[in-house]
Amino acid sequence: MKILVAVKRVVDYNVKVRIRSDGTGVDIANVKMSMNPFDEIALEEAVRLKEKGVATEVVAVSCGVAQCQETLRTAMAIGADRAILVESSEDLQPLAVAKLLKAILDKEQAGLVILGKQAIDDDCNQTGQMLAALAGLPQATFASKLELTDGRVLVTREVDGGSQMLSLGLPAVITADLRLNEPRYVTLPNIMKAKKKQLDVFKPQYLGVDVSPRIMTLKVTEPPKRKAGILVPDVATLVSKLRDDGLVV
Ligand code: AMP
């Protein structure tokens, strides 16, 4: 069984993002970019399934600018067998990415698609769900455990106040939550090996997908600055201050 894993290139989670002065978005010039952390988890799970002999091939897919090739090389150093870049300089919104992934899925005929539960740049949490709907496949989001048996996949998902178990027929779409696994570190020998692995590049037009944005961002602003706190000498002063500020009655 072949597994497709969607990996997005995003601003590294350690970077404190800056808003562009014209308020049109986040400034990514000269900023460290990395693989979306939930996609690392998705990829780790796929590679473990291959190591267990359950999967035969792991293919990493990224949609975006030419530099996404670096992210895909990292994916191959982690253990993906090959990679596909759908190259576009458009602002790719979740629906466009879901359509591109659907086109790749049709080409590759994979048995399982694993995505991250959300991209940490747009926080959309939409792409996996849209892909499942477009492809007419069963979906399990926020997976914290995954087992493949008898042509079905058993998924434990984190829900409010507990966990839920789902059994899905294959092919299926799964999105990875934080507790699914702990991704491995990339080793230097594997980085070297990844340089020789196959990386195909397609354009959206070749896949017959219109990726024009459907949603317009009106304005991006920083969260309001928090005011500095004050120290109060005792509880009585604290309570009277809270009363004065109308925070308790
Ligand atoms: P989102 O719906 O934007 O929060 O993204 C959810 C997941 O979809 C991510 O964790 C990725 O696995 C996948 N994804 C989103 N955008 C892209 C992209 N441009 N290229 C590859 N995968 C993507």
Question: Key features?
Answer:
single chain, 249 residues, Rossmann fold, nine-stranded mixed sheet, 27% helix, binds adenosine monophosphate
Protein topology:
Elements: E1 2-6, E2 9-11, E3 33-35, H1 37-51, E4 57-64, H2 68-78, E5 82-87, H3 94-108, E6 112-116, H4 127-135, E7 139-149, E8 152-159, E9 162-169, E10 172-176, H5 188-194, E11 199-202, H6 235-244
Parallel strand pairs: 1-4, 1-6, 4-5, 5-11, 6-10, 7-10
Antiparallel strand pairs: 2-3, 7-8, 8-9
Helix pairs in contact: 2-5, 3-4
Bound molecules: adenosine monophosphate.
Q: Can you name the CATH architecture?
A: 3-Layer(aba) Sandwich
The CATH topology, please? Rossmann fold
Strand order of the largest sheet: 9-8-7-10-6-1-4-5-11
Global geometry: globular
- How many helices? The count is 6
Secondary structural class: alpha/beta
Radius of gyration: 21 Å
Helicity, as a percent range? 25-40%
Write a compact overview of the structure shown.
This protein has helices at residues 37-51, 68-78, 94-108, 127-135, 188-194, 235-244, and strands at residues 2-6, 9-11, 33-35, 57-64, 82-87, 112-116, 139-149, 152-159, 162-169, 172-176, 199-202.
Protein described:
Helix 2 packs across helix 5 and helix 3 (94-108) crosses helix 4 (127-135). The chain is of the alpha/beta class and 249 residues long. The model has no long low-confidence stretch (mean pLDDT 96). The protein contains six helices and eleven strands. The termini are far apart. The protein has one domain (2-224): Rossmann fold (3-Layer(aba) Sandwich). The strands form two sheets. It has a nine-stranded mixed β-sheet, with helices on both faces. A two-stranded antiparallel ribbon has the order 2-3. Bound molecules: adenosine monophosphate. The site of adenosine monophosphate (AMP) has 23 residues, from helix 1, strand 4, helix 3, strand 6 and helix 4.
